Amino acid sequence: MPGPERAARLSAATQVLATFSWRLLLVTGAVVVIGYVLGVLWAPVLLPVVLGLLFSTVMWPLTKLLRRGKFPPALAALTTVVLFLAAFVGIIAAIAPPVVSQVNDLATGVSSGLQSVQDWLSGPPFNLGQEQIGEYVDDAINRLQSSAGDIANFALTGASAVGTGLVNLVLALVLAFFFLKDGPRFLPWLAAQTGPRAAPHVAELSHQSWRTLSEFIRQQALVGFIDALGIGIGLLVLGVPLVLPLAVITFFAAFIPIIGAFVAGGFAVLIALVSNGFSTAVWVLLIVVVVQQVEGNVLQPILQGRGLKLHAGVVILAVTAGSSLAGIIGAFLAVPVAALLAVGYRYARDQLDGRHPERDDDGRVPELVGDAEGARLTRSAEPVRD
Fold first, then answer.
1. What integer pLDDT is reported at residue 304 of this predicted model?
2. Which of 184, 199, 254, 358 could, after both became Cys, cross-link 368 (CB 3.0–4.6 A)?
3. Dihedral of the alpha carbons of 208, 210, 216, 218, in degrees to the nearest 10
4. Average pLDDT over residues 253-272
5. How confident is the model at residue 24 (pLDDT cuts 50, 70, 90)?
6. In contact, 118 and 135? CB cutoff 8 Å
7. Between β-strands 374-379 and 366-371, what pairing exists: parallel, antiparallel or unpaired?
C-alpha cells in the first residue's frame, strides 16, 4: 500500500525539479546570449585584445628589466615592442633565402616524386596502365577547371582573411604597447571598479591568470625549442633541405599543443620524401616520433604538472574545438583559454570549500588603497580571519 507521505514527497520533488529546471534554462539562456555577444565582438575587439595580452606576457620580462634600469614606462614599452618586431623580421629574413634558393630543387623533387608514384601505380599490386592514370589526371584537371570560380572565390576570401589578420596583428601590437606601459596601473583600476569586497578576489584571480598565461608561453617555447633542435639536427645529418625553415615551423607549431607537433612533423617527412626519397623519409619519421615521444612523455608531464595542470584529453578537445570555431587562431588560443577557464573553476571551487586562495601564507589579502596618485593594491597589514 502506498504510504500517506508519497504525495507530499512527490510534490516536494516536483518543486525541486521545477526550480532546478528554471535555473538551468536561465543559465543556458545567459550562456547563449554571452556566446552570441562574444562571437560578434570576437574578430573586431576580443581577438586583438587576447593576442595583445599574449604578446605582453612574452615581452613583459624585458620591459620590467628596462623599467628597473630607470627607463620611463613608455620608452621601456616602445623599446621592447621594437625589439620584438626586429626579432620577428630577422627570423623571416633568415628563413626566406634558403627557401627561395631551394624552390627549384623542391619543384624538381616534386616532379620526380609524382613520376615515382605513377611508376608505382603502374606496377603490382595496382597494375594501372598509363591510359588509366592519364584518365584520372584528366578527370582531376576537369574538376579543377569546373571549380575555377569556387577556387577564385576562396582565394579572394583567403586574401581578405590575410588582410584582416594583418590589421588585427598591428592592433594587437599597439595594445601590447599600452599593456606594457600601463599594465601595473590596470589591475588597481579594475579592482577599484568592483568595490572593496570583490577587490581581493579580482586581484588574486588576475594574478593567477597572468601567471598561467606566462607559464603557457614559457612552457610551449621550451617545448618548441627542444622539438626544433632535435628534429633540426636530424634533418641536417640526413641532408634534408630547408632545415632552418622546418625547424622554425616546428618551433611555432609547438604553440598548438599535440596537434601542431604532428603537423610540423608530417611536413618535415613530406619534404624529406620529395627531396631525398623514401628511405630518408622513414628516418625523418623515426626522428620525429622519438623527439615527440621524449617531449610528450618526459618533458610535458613535468611542465604541465607545475604549470597549466591540464589533462592531455582536455588539451586535445580544446584544440579541436578552437580550430573548428576559429581556424588556426582558435587552435592557437584554445589551450590558454582552457587554462584560464580552469583557473577560474579552481578558484571558485576553493572558495566554496573555504580555502581562501586570495590569502597568502601569512593570511593577508590584497587590499585596495587610494592616495593622490590614484588607487593601488597592497597587502593588508594584519591577517584576515574568518
1. 56
2. 199
3. -120
4. 79
5. very high
6. no
7. antiparallel
CA 339 vs CA 13, 24, 310, 342, 368: distances in Å: 37, 25, 7, 5, 27
For the ranges 1-5, 37-41, 167-171, the lowest mean pLDDT is seen at: 1-5
Query: Cα(273)–Cα(284) distance, rounded to whole angstroms?
Result: 9
Strand partners, 375: 370
**Does the pLDDT at position 208 exceed 80?**
yes
Percent of the chain that is helix, strand, coil (3-state, to 5): 80, 5, 15
Q: Looking at the predicted structure, is the pLDDT value of residue 147 above 60?
A: no
Interior/surface letters 199-238, b for 16+ CB within 10 angstroms, e for the rest? bbbbbbbbebbbebbbbbbebbeebbebbbebbbebbeeb
Write the pLDDT tens digit of every residue in 296-326. Answer: 666 666 665 555 677 777 778 888 888 888 7
Instruction: Specify the pLDDT at position 75.
Output: 93
Three-state DSSP class for residue 368: strand
The answer to whether the beta carbons of residues 223 and 254 sit under 8 Å apart is: yes
Q: What angle in degrees, to the nearest 10, is found between the helix axes of 130-146 and 148-194?
A: 60
**What is d(CA 232, CA 246) in angstroms, rounded to the nearest whole number?**
7
Determine the residue type at 97.
P
pTM for this entry = 0.72
- Identify the CA nearest to 196 among candidates 386, 385, 373, 367: 367
Contact 272, 235 (CB under 8 A): yes
Highest mean pLDDT among 5-9, 194-198, 220-224: 220-224
Reduced to 3 states (helix: H, G, I; strand: E, B; else coil), residue 366 is: strand
Average pLDDT, whole number, for the chain?
Answer: 78
Residue 274 and residue 28: Cα distance in Å, rounded? 52
Q: Rounding to the nearest 10 degrees, give the CA dihedral for residues 351, 355, 358, 359.
A: 160
How far apart are alpha carbons 74 and 80 in whole angstroms? 10
DSSP state, residue 297: I
Radius of gyration of the chain from its Cα atoms, rounded to whole angstroms: 28
How high is the pLDDT of residue 155? Answer: 46
- Looking at the chain, the number of H-run helices and the number of E-run strands are 12, 2
Q: Scan for cell 581578405, then name that residue.
A: 160
